[in-house]
Amino acid sequence: MMRQDWDIYKDRDVTPKEMFLNRRQIMAGGLGAACVTALPRGARAEALTPNSFEEITSYNNFYEFGWDKSDPKKYAAALTTTPWSVEIDGLVERPGTYALEDLLKMVTVSERIYRFRCVEAWSMVIPWSGFQLSDLLESVGVQSGARYVGFTSVLRPKEMPGQSGYSGIDWPYQEGLRLDEAMNPLTLMATGLYGEDLPKQNGAPIRLVVPWKYGFKSAKSIVKISLLKDQPLNTWQALQPKEYGFYANVNPQVDHPRWSQATERVIGAGLFGGRKETLMFNGYGEQVASLYKGMDLRKFY
Length: 301
Ligand code: MTE
Description:
- The chain is built from 9 helices and 13 strands.
- Strands 1, 4, 5, 8, 9, 10, 12 and 13 form an 8-stranded mixed beta sheet that branches.
- Residues 8-19 and 21-45 have low confidence and may be disordered.
- The two termini are 35 Å apart.
- The chain has helices spanning 15-26, 53-58, 71-75, 100-105, 133-140, 179-183, 235-239, 270-273, 285-288, and strands at 36-37, 85-90, 96-99, 110-117, 122-132, 148-153, 174-178, 188-193, 196-197, 207-209, 222-228, 263-266, 275-277.
- A hairpin with a 5-residue loop joins strand 2 and strand 3.
- The longest helix is centred in the N-terminal third of the chain and has 12 residues, at 15-26.
- The protein binds ligand MTE.
- Ligand MTE is lined by residues 60-64, 118, 153, 173, 202, 215-216, 218-221.
């Protein structure tokens, strides 16, 4: 596979890759041969060591299962994820409801280690498996009038306790990207982590991952992808528009109205060692800053 400019392994410490591959060798039933791609150049000085499987799968936001970070792991087993299909609709040449296994035949799955920064100012490093959303969009054919992509998570109140009681959220969970953001090579549809199928608490069987944006953009358990002319309303913006916007680019210079975004708590780094400075676009500026040229990022937060 051709090297991309965000493939850090050409110029940085390879420890995480070796670690990751060693773990893969131990695990049976992984996704098979895949290339490992990760952070951009310039990340060299930082040891990019993935969080443990345990950390990534037991400290979650998935409000369909409750508000506590431990709720998703506790309750997500009730969600049925097979069979699964994804509807692709709107301004698209080949709309339809695609069985997940058919959809996966249209794309190339690879592995990528990405930083993950939540708007609540905590962060992890996660080794995902998945495919570029651009791969899928190219194969279904985007019509010329499409300017945005909408994502809809699953609606199953019987299997997801947070969807039946009062939560203030208008389910299903919705997210959106501008089409050029969706087509960026970093934008991933994740189907696994640590070479295993995605655990339910992390958004099985398929979720969005947009590593330069706050984690809430990364909608979980997706059942619909819509090609749209107009900018869609995303769940957190609908709930609290003064605190959460459409863009949600990681930006240490633009604080949340209730807390600073300048630093982040590194999950797994312990009580005293665990804060570091947040990077503009979460460290992916080289790949994505041009998407926002001339935009006032204080206004479009
Ligand atoms: N997707 C759905 N459907 N429901 C959610 O509550 N939470 C978001 C995002 N995607 C959420 C969601 C938030 S706030 C974050 S930080 C990430 O998922 C958390 O992903 P993780 O649990 O895999 O770390």
